[in-house]
Design goal:
Layout lengths: L7 E2 H8 L6 H11 L6 E2 L1 H15 L6 H6 L13 H11 L15 H6 L16 H19 L2 H4 L6 H5 L3 E6 L5 H9 L17 E6 L4 E4 H5 L13 H5 L2 E6 L5 H9 L1 E4 L17 H11 L2 E6 L8 H8 L8 E5 L7 H19 L7 E3 L9 H58 L6 H10 L1 H12 L9 H8 L12 H21 L6
Parallel strand pairs: 3-7, 3-8, 4-6, 8-9, 9-10
Antiparallel strand pairs: 1-2, 4-7, 5-6
Helix pairs in contact: 2-3, 7-17, 7-21, 17-19, 17-21
């Protein structure tokens, strides 16, 4: 924290916490609990948690999350830090600006936010990187973004990333047909209704709504959110005004319940319109619904597909939506809601029918995790559920809440995972675009050659894969790519720049592993 950025990194921690005279194993545990999100640094709130754990350890108590949760923090004595008073006195006499500890916790490092305003590929000083997220930003700006711009990755796959994309809170998206209880599910978790929420048996939620914490209750229109630099929704502008008029952000202050306070503080929810079924599918939406859900799926940390016992059929639109989630299978969880509307025997049959229906769409041998329960504020119907059903629903709800509470802890790992996935995708895209450019004739017959390349795009993909030794799983959908490519002139594409591609390879092979090693638990 000597640089005054409000972050205590591993090197500073080794010096500071050594004054507590705790063993290295104890301090390793202190850091692991305080830096539960694995950011690689302690902000002000995490630093306070670490100091409380040090104090508990010095009092002879076990260093654990449970000990901290049940401790009487009001009567807890400050930790004894040997030599700290002398150091602070010396610091204050030599420097009027104060102590080593800066008592604030910025949402993001101002310097890292300004990096995105600089020219692409500009070098960023290593000393400016004080967290894993900062390191990812540095790698993106210096190595990955130049590749994406050169080969127009933002037009084909995903918009260029901004600072807010890296700093955004984890998101949970709810998908399902109308009246499966998506909005009620969110209300049940928050113990209150969010601004603009409508609940009813008919399709009431007619827009995408992001529910997040804020200073007051208000709804922000989609066009406003899309241009806010501190919110990660600028990429939605590509879906046009037709979609943005059906998109809004619902801000609300933290609920008074301690557990839910932490949940809404660290997670945003995405409520979605009910997926159409039956006759309603004949009415076309004014925007690309499947494209929007796919965009959110890439950004979200968890995707909940909601069903109820009376809506197990998967409509054509729902099938397209689920298929658009491919590549994000690890994020998907199934929720069988309103399960107390059927008895135990019927529930068993419903569960089997649900897995059978999903098996045909997901096309995977693995079984998705299914949470069974009745996620609303009404008491569970014991006459239908029975004593065994009551216990089952309670345990399922506990498991689901545990899954949600684990999301912030895994957020940094998820960012790294998505970043590596994006880098591999961008690299494959660069090889495809440069290959198509290479296959174009120098002078005559360009239109005919481009048409032939489009028709044999699957063969071109196979050729690129074989020549460059790339994994087949990193290649995009042939049909979707062909549709996007048809609007471009291949002759204007860039040729392969080996140095640029090598830079991305080096980033994946050396920079990212080095970053994880640099910001791991300093006591390991």
């Amino acid at each position: 924290m000597e640089d005054g950025d409000g972050r205590l990194t591993g090197r500073d921690a080794l010096k500071f916490f050594a004054m507590s005279n705790l063993s290295r194993d104890d301090l390793k545990q202190v850091w692991a609990i305080a830096d539960s999100k694995r950011q690689g640094y302690l902000g002000f709130s995490e630093f306070m948690t670490a100091m409380q754990l040090v104090s508990l350890a010095q009092a002879g108590q076990e260093i654990s999350q449970d000990t901290l949760a049940h401790a009487d923090l009001g009567s807890l004595q400050p930790p004894t830090m040997e030599g700290l008073d002398k150091k602070l006195k010396k610091k204050s006499s030599g420097n009027k600006s104060g102590s080593d500890i800066v008592a604030y916790h910025p949402i993001e490092s101002p310097m890292s936010a300004n990096w995105f305003n600089s020219k692409s590929g500009k070098k960023i000083a290593l000393k400016s990187v004080t967290s894993i997220i900062d390191g990812l930003k540095k790698s993106y700006i210096e190595k990955l973004r130049p590749l994406e711009k050169t080969y127009q990755y933002n037009d084909f796959v995903s918009p260029l990333l901004t600072s807010s994309d890296f700093d955004a809170k984890p998101m949970v998206m709810l998908l399902g047909q109308y009246s499966t209880g998506k909005t009620t599910f969110i209300k049940h978790l928050l113990k209150t209704s969010y601004p603009g929420a409508h609940i009813g048996p008919e399709p009431t939620t007619d827009r995408f709504v992001v529910i997040t914490s804020g200073p007051d209750e208000r709804c922000i229109p989609g066009n406003t959110i899309a241009v806010q630099a501190d919110m990660p929704y600028s990429g939605l502008s590509s879906f046009g005004t037709a979609f943005l008029s059906k998109f809004e952000c619902s801000q609300m202050p933290h609920p008074v319940y301690p557990l839910l306070h932490r949940l809404l503080d660290h997670i945003s929810f995405v409520d979605t319109p009910g997926v159409l079924s039956g006759e309603k599918q004949r009415t076309q939406r004014s925007y690309d619904f499947t494209g929007v859900t796919s965009w959110f799926a890439a950004k979200c940390d968890l995707i909940l597909l909601l069903f109820d016992p009376h809506k197990l059929d998967i409509s054509d639109e729902f099938k397209r939506v689920i298929m658009s989630l491919r590549g994000h299978d690890d994020k998907i969880r199934i929720v069988l809601n309103k399960a107390d509307q059927v008895d135990a025997q019927q529930l068993m049959r419903v569960y089997g029918a649900l897995l059978w229906s999903l098996g045909k769409v997901l096309n995977t041998p693995e079984v998705m995790r299914v949470y069974i329960g009745s996620f609303n504020d009404k008491p569970i119907r014991e006459t239908a559920a029975g004593p065994l059903g009551m216990e089952l629903f309670e345990r399922e709800q506990e498991d689901l809440m545990s899954d949600l509470n684990d999301i912030p802890k895994k957020a940094c790992d998820r960012r790294i995972n998505e970043f590596v996935k994006r880098a591999r995708s961008a690299k494959v895209h660069a090889h495809i675009i440069s290959h198509l450019k290479k296959e174009m004739p120098a002078l005559m017959g360009k239109a005919k050659a481009q048409l032939k390349l489009l028709e044999t795009l699957d063969e071109q993909f196979a050729k690129v894969q074989k020549e460059m030794h790339l994994p087949a799983g990193d290649f995009p959908s042939v049909d979707e790519y062909r549709e996007t490519l048809s609007a471009y002139n291949f002759d204007r594409f860039e040729r392969l720049r080996p140095k640029m591609v090598q830079g991305v390879d080096d980033m994946l092979a050396y920079d990212i592993p080095g970053l994880l090693k640099q910001f791991r638990n300093p006591y390991q």
